[in-house]
Structures are given as C-alpha cells and as structure tokens.
Amino acid sequence: MSFVTSPSGRRMKGYLPDYYETSRVMDSILQAQGAELDQLRVSLEETLQQFFVSSATWGLDAWEAELGIAMVPDKPDDQRRAVIHAKLRGVGTVTVELLHSVASAYERGAVEVTQQPALYQFTVRFVDTLGTPPNLGDLQAAIEEIKPAHLQVVYQYKYFLLNQLHQTMTIKDLQTRRMTDFAPFIPVS
Fold first, then answer.
1. Most distant CA pair in the chain: distance in Å?
2. Most CB atoms closer than 10 Å: which of 15, 101, 106, 141?
3. Please, what are the domains in the chain?
4. Which residues, listed in sequence order, are joined to residue 131 by a DSSP beta bridge?
5. What is the structure's pLDDT at 186?
6. Cα separation of 23 and 5, whole Å?
7. Is 6 in contact with 36 (CB distance < 8 Å)?
8. For residue range 98-146, what is the model confidence (pLDDT) as tens digits?
9. What is the pTM of this model?
10. Which long-range contacts (CB under 8 A, 24 or more apart) does 138-143 make?
C-alpha cells in the first residue's frame, strides 16, 4: 500500500522501478518532495496570474507602479484593474474610438462620445448608468490624461425625472420600492 498522497509524488513514483513499490522510505521521500513540487506548482501558477491585469491580485501594485498610477490599496481590485486597463488602452491619437475603449474598461462604462469642434470640446454621455457611475473619478482622470489640453470635456449623466416615473408607476408603487431599485450604486444607510 502506498502512502504517497501528493499528486507530484504519485507521478514520480510511476517513473521508478517496481522494487520501490513497497519501500516506505521511498514513499516518505516521494511524499516530501511531491508536496514541495505541488506547492511550487501552485506558486508558479499564482505568479503567472500576476502577469495579466485581468487575473492579477497582489501584482496590481507592480502594474500601478509601472504605469505611474497612484496606488490606493483600499480600492477594490476590480476598480484598480479598470484604472490599469484604461491606462494601457489610452495610448496614441485621441479619437472617439479611443475614448470608448478607455471608458469601457470601467464598470458601467458604456458611453456615447460626441465632438463639438467649434466649441473645442467633446461630450461624454453615460448610456447604461443612472446617475453617476461608480469609479467616476478614475474615469475622469483617465480621460483627462489622454485628451488634448485644448479640449474641454463635458459629462452628461442619465437620471430618472419625476415625470418619467409618474408615467410608469403610481405614488403607491413608488412607496413600496427602495431607492436602490432606481440607482443601485447609491449606498443606503
């Protein structure tokens, strides 16, 4: 009976001659070395995940340092990843497509971008979010960093107006609903 429980140890045992099959000494050696190899494999896989922004966890600090992004460890990892993705995408000539690409890196970042060349400005309108989107400050900073200095950016937000609510719901219906049903990102205390 084999006492080797490590997957790597069992794999190594398969390469040994048959006379080691009943050796408890060899089983102990294979178990110890196999456990180390298993742990090494896990560490290597975890390290490999840090090379990709979408799977990085503890490696986000290195990405932020490399890209010159201010580190805010208190931020959730998904928001930190969004800032990194936006920074990586925001390279080259600023076009409407580039602004779409940068905005889409953020949570609820579907936007419409319209240019007003005569006014030296462009408008970013949020289309999939009611109110202000989460992580708005980071999105504004990313756009501010990539836009030409002579252009002004105007942000337009989408809100439910009271007359729109009255067209779809009665006051009684509204009283039974929570505010987060209309703007799920607003913290309710």
1. 86
2. 106
3. 1-49 (no CATH), 52-92 (no CATH), 96-181 (3.30.70)
4. 158
5. 47
6. 15
7. no
8. 888 888 877 777 888 899 999 999 998 888 777 778 788 888 888 888 8
9. 0.53
10. 138/79, 138/82, 138/83, 138/86, 138/106, 139/86, 139/102, 139/103, 139/106, 139/109, 142/83, 142/86, 142/87, 142/90, 142/102, 142/105, 143/99, 143/102, 143/103
For range 36-52, the mean pLDDT: 96
Alpha helices in the chain (DSSP H): 7-13, 24-49, 60-67, 77-89, 96-104, 136-146, 162-168, 171-175
* pLDDT value of residue 179: 64
- In terms of Cβ atoms closer than 10 Å to its own Cβ (0-12, 13-18, 19+), residue 108 is buried
Percent of the chain with pLDDT over 90: 40
Two tokens at 5?
Answer: 């429980």
